[in-house]
Structures are given as structure tokens and as C-alpha cells.
Amino acid sequence: MDFANAWDIYADKRQQIEQVNQEYLRFLTEGKTEREAVAYLETEAVQSGFVPLALVMNGEVKVTPGLKVYLNYREKAFIAAIIGQQPLEKGLNIIGAHLDAPRLDLKPNPLYEAEKLGWLKTHYYGGIKKYQWVALPLALHGVVFTRSGQRLQIVIGEKGEDPVFTITDLLPHLAAKQMEKKAAEVISGEGLNLLVGSIPCEDKEAKERVKAALLKILKEQYGIEPEDFARAELEAVPAGPAREVGLDRSLIGGFGQDDRVCAWTAWAALRDLAETPEYTAVALLVDKEEIGSTGNTGMTAAFFANMVAELINAQSQPYNEILLRRALANSRALSADVSVAVDPNFEGVVDKYNAARLGQGLVVTKYTGARGKSGTSDANAEFVARVLQIFSEADVPWQVGELGAVDVGGGGTIAKFMAETGMDVLDCGVALLSMHSPFEVASKVDIFAAYEGYKAFYRKAGQ
Predict the structure, then answer these.
(1) Prior bond to 102 cis, omega within 30?
(2) What CATH number does the domain containing 50 carry?
(3) Strand partners, 68
(4) Does the predicted model carry a pTM greater than 0.85?
(5) DSSP string spanning 324-362?
(6) Residues 71, 111: one domain?
(7) Residue pLDDT, tens place only, 296-311
(8) What's the domain range around 82?
(9) 20 to 30 Å CA-CA from 105: which of 48, 261, 386, 392?
């Protein structure tokens, strides 16, 4: 198959492409953690007329066609839905994505002094190339809870006047042995320590004067005691905003596009639906995908099914669990996750006949997994055919893509967990260069294609 350049297909929509991408740039810059992303989306949801699920649960709001409802689940997962004309048991049109991204988390007891310098210990989250995280300006984002129960919102390193942090690397003059190591061993996991200070405290008799001085700064400027780190979730992420890339500004570069590029387009497409859909449309944005979708905010948790159950309970009294099972099994879903784009700098890791390219539209991936498709749901041909028909009728450019050549590697998405309920699921997202790096790159036209394709899916799936 020869896929067209999406810029040609959308030649008359350049202004709309820019508008969508400027909105996305703001989200990508302001939502560098799951909590920040959820807070951003909740603000937009309220402004767009969505009401919290709690109002449905306590009977203040009736579940009728056109109702816009959302759930902020533990500040790490976000679900938004527009109730359709058909009963919920007829199935939902779901676009599922994830809000978490590979990063560095501070350990519960992170602060120490070595060689009269202050450091913070980290534990990496998700699949990273550790060597990519050294010699970069990094920022700290997260929350801290004090012994008294006070919640502290922490963002250090994003404003021009803020300090930043960094992980040091070895100079090439002394790196002969380091350069002989495998890439996975060039920087060790325990070597990913943030440099945070060097001025000693005034007490010359103190054992660790720099550490003591840093503890004083943490207390006076941020209200943080040493034990508060055990009650904290602090993430080290690349400092600075997401940026336009290229002389023609055709690309978006930034941290966390896997998978916030699909999460935001799934949300924006739902928000911008102009009419009540025939079937209930849902943007399902979860946490923990990068570490196996575990935990109570990951796709394997029950919070999504619980929300559907609450909506059914409000719509169909008395509640019957069989209606929930029917609703999930009859649903149609896109697992909106990113795909690898062909990179001419790295030949041989993809099958060029079955790989995605930047600028050719939304990527349809029938199966993910590794080796013999291990860990995938492998969408049925009937459902793939219907989704491609929806895209074609809406003039949405699409392409096919696999996550690498056979036996080279691979990976999974939330699709297999969604499929466990019996619903039809197809992986469908945006292609990236430099995936899982501190600066991932996507095409503006592919982002717009995702936005348009997801809108068409919300409207037409099930018909």
C-alpha cells in the first residue's frame, strides 16, 4: 500500500491544524505528570459543561442523552463521557489512552551528601534509556504531604528564575572504559542521582554541612521535613516547555508524548462533538500503563467498570449486573497509543513495508506484542474493517504500523486488558520519533488526524 502524505490531504485545513496543535502544546507543557494532566483536563471538562460523576451517584443529575459527565479518579486517571441516544447496555464507543510517561521518581529517603555535594536518589519509572537522562536540565514536579496533613504542590525548575537539577556524566577524556560498556550499562540505575546543591551550612562542626544546608532550604522555602519524602510523589522530568520543531514548524517536540498525544486528542475529540452521539462516547485516560497497567489507577483496576455501573444504575433501576456485562461486551474501543515511526538514522529495526511514518496520518495497529504477538489482543478483521471504513468516510488519513520488526523487540498497550471484557479493541494512535526519550517528536498533521479520526469514531462506531 502507498499511503498519501497527510499534509496534501489536509491542504485546506492548515489553520485548523495549527489551532489544535497550539492547544496540545499548552497541555503537553502544563501536564508533565499524571496529576497535572488530570487537573488540566478536569478544568477543561468543567468549562465545557461536564459534571462530576458524584452528582449522578447522589441523584442530583439524571442520566439522559446528551449528559456530559466525568470522573477524576484519585487525581491520576480521568474518564469523560457523553451519554448517547442508545441505552448503555447497547455498548459504548471508547477511546482509551494513558497519562503516565517514563520518568525518574525520587526515592522515599532521597537526600544524601557525597564529596561535599548534595544529591537526590531516584528510581526510574517505565522503559528508559538511562544514558539519555544525564547532562540535562531537569525539573521536580509532584506532591508532598506533611506530618500535619498539609498538601504541598511542588514544581521547581519550570520558571525562568527557578533553579534546575541535573544528573552528571563522565567527561570523554576519562571515559575509555565507560565507552566499552553496553548502552544499558553506561549509566547504572543507582547512578541516576540529581545534583541539588553545594553550599555548606554555617556550622563548621556539622558532619554533612551541605546536606544540612539543603534541609534548611527545604524547610524554610518549601515546608518539607526529611520524613515528608516518604509521604511524597516527586518526579524528575525534563525542564522547559514543549516546542515546535523544524524550520517549517511542522513537528511537536517534548516530554511525555507517549501517551499524552493520544490522551489529549481523545479528550479534545470528545469535548468538541457537536451533537449527541448515538452511542455513549467515552474518553478513558488511565495511569500505570508504562509499568504494566497495575495499581488501582491502571487499566486492570475496576474504576472504569464501576463508573459504567453507576451510570447504568442511574439509568436503569433496579440495577442489574447483567446490564454492565452487556454494556462492556457490546462496546467498541480504540486503544489510543503511540507507534514507532521509521527513522532513517536507524535502519533495520522495523519492517519498512509495515511501519508507520511521520506525516502520513493516524496509525492503525492490528496487533502489538513481542515475538509471536505475545501480550496482544490482535483485533478481529471485521472490527478493523469497520474502523477503516469510518476513517475513510470522514476523509481521515490513516496508515498501518507495527511496533518493530519481528523478533527485534516489541511492547504492549492497554488493549489486551480492555479486550478481557469482550469488547472489540483496535490499537490506533500517533507515530513518534525518539519514543520514551526526554524529547519525543510527533507530526502536527498526525496529531490533527488523530483528533479528526477519534471524533469520527465517537460518532459512527456501532452504526
Answers:
(1) no
(2) 3.40.630.10
(3) 82
(4) yes
(5) HHHHHHT-EEEE---EEBP-TTSTTSS-GGG-B-TTS-E
(6) no
(7) 999 999 999 999 999 9
(8) 6-101+255-460
(9) 261
